[in-house]
Structures are given as C-alpha cells and as structure tokens.
Amino acid sequence: MAKDKPETLHGRILDEFSRKIVDGTWPPGFLLPKETELATQYGVSRMTMNKVLTRLASDGFVIRRKRSGTVVAQPRAESAVLAINNIGEEVAALGRRYKWALLSSENRTGNSQDRRLLSLNEDEPGENALFLQGLHYSNDEPFCLETRVINSALVPDALSVDFQAEVPGTWLLKTMPWTKARHHVRAINVSGRDATLLELPAGAACLEMLRRTQIEDNWVTCARLLYPGEAHQLIAEFDGKVGV
C-alpha cells in the first residue's frame, strides 16, 4: 500500500491542477508558484511536484520556461500543413500581441552548415545570398524562431529592405508570387542557441518546419521555422474527391 500512495497523491494533484486550468481558475498566462513552494504547500517532495508539472507540460496545459517559470498555456496556434501562413496573423488569431525582432542579417556565400540547417541543395545558396534570423513574439514571449535565406540574385530588392521593420515572410508573400512550394515538418528536441533564444530548456520538444518556395525552377527563399511544441499544432483538411 505504501508503494501506491505517491502514485495516488501524484494523480490527485495532477487532476486538481488540470481542473483549475480547464475551468478557468488558472487562466492562460497565469504564473504558478515555484515548484518548491507547490511541493511544500501539498506536502510532497520536489521530485513528485516536478513529475506533476512535467506531465502538465507534455499534455499542453502549461509552459515551463527558464526565466519566467511555469505558466498556463494559451490555446495552441494552428497552421495548415499546405498553406503559406502569415505568422503575425497566427498570433493575432489567438488574441495576443505580435512583435517581430530581427537578430541578424548577412549578405554572404552559403556554407555546408547553412545547407544542412535549411535543407538546401549542394549548389545552393551560391554567392550573395541574404541570410536572416529573427524571433516572432506572442505577448512578448518567443513564438517562433525563423532562420531564412533569400536568393538575392532573383530578389535583388531584398537587399534594400529594412527587415527590422518588415517581416521577411510577409514581405515576400506581397512581392514575390511563387509557383512551387515544399514543406518538410518534423518534431525535434531543441538545444544550444536555439533553446536559449526560445527561452526553453535543452531537450524541449519543438516543431520544425522547413519551407522552400520557387518560381519555376528557381528558388526564391528557404526558411526554417522553429516553434515550441506545446504552443503549436498543424492541421490539414482534405477534399473527399482527392485520391489517396
């Protein structure tokens, strides 16, 4: 019996916390007390409370961040798998404030690391490609880390754009109509600088979307969009007339 007690207590606390989130007692953005404080309040070990919070995070109820602690998660953003979405509109659809922050901008020759990160072909990006990296924010919290290269030979106007003020993806959607697009989506565990920029612990689950657009056989841009896994999900709708 003694062996089962921690499991029962863990489940009771988990149910209580889940109920408070679902019924709105703890609304989206609510900051939970520190793990040590919760453990003391409920008379359990810190390990048991960590287990509860970890389960809540894996189920999408809370977000655990290094600096800001554990907060109740907002409703997840949704992206259509086959659509080229405006990230600012994704954030606005959640009723949250959107902000873009440019981290770096370089016009240079690509290297093997660029090709590996962005899934480029061996002969890409060539000379004078514009490399950009920035963060999309939702209510001042990192929402998506964007790493992008633009074919400046095909899109020379990009070199004169102030991408601190202009969101690269939005600008490209308005100015460079594409004829082909490819998406590659996978789940990854974030680490290193990516984890730091997204304010996530090393090993946290993220959704990585690699996106490539072309005009005929010429590539326009390749982007890597990295979303915290608990804050994003993909949807797809299919017409019954489409074959399998």
UniProtKB/TrEMBL annotation:
It comes from the Bacteria. This is HTH gntR-type domain-containing protein. SMART domains: HTH_GNTR, UTRA. InterPro entries: Bact_HTH_transcr_reg (IPR050679), Chorismate_lyase_/UTRA_dom_sf (IPR028978), Tscrpt_reg_HTH_GntR (IPR000524), UTRA (IPR011663), WH-like_DNA-bd_sf (IPR036388), WH_DNA-bd_sf (IPR036390). Keywords: DNA-binding, Plasmid, Transcription, Transcription regulation. It holds the Pfam family GntR. CDD domains: WHTH_GntR. PANTHER family: MANNOSYL-D-GLYCERATE TRANSPORT/METABOLISM SYSTEM REPRESSOR MNGR-RELATED (PTHR44846), TRANSCRIPTIONAL REGULATOR PHNF-RELATED (PTHR44846:SF16). PROSITE patterns: HTH_GNTR. SUPFAM superfamilies: Chorismate lyase-like, Winged helix' DNA-binding domain. GO terms for molecular function: DNA binding; DNA-binding transcription factor activity. The keyword Transcription applies. The keyword DNA-binding applies. Residues 7-75 form the HTH gntR-type domain. It comes from Pacificitalea manganoxidans.
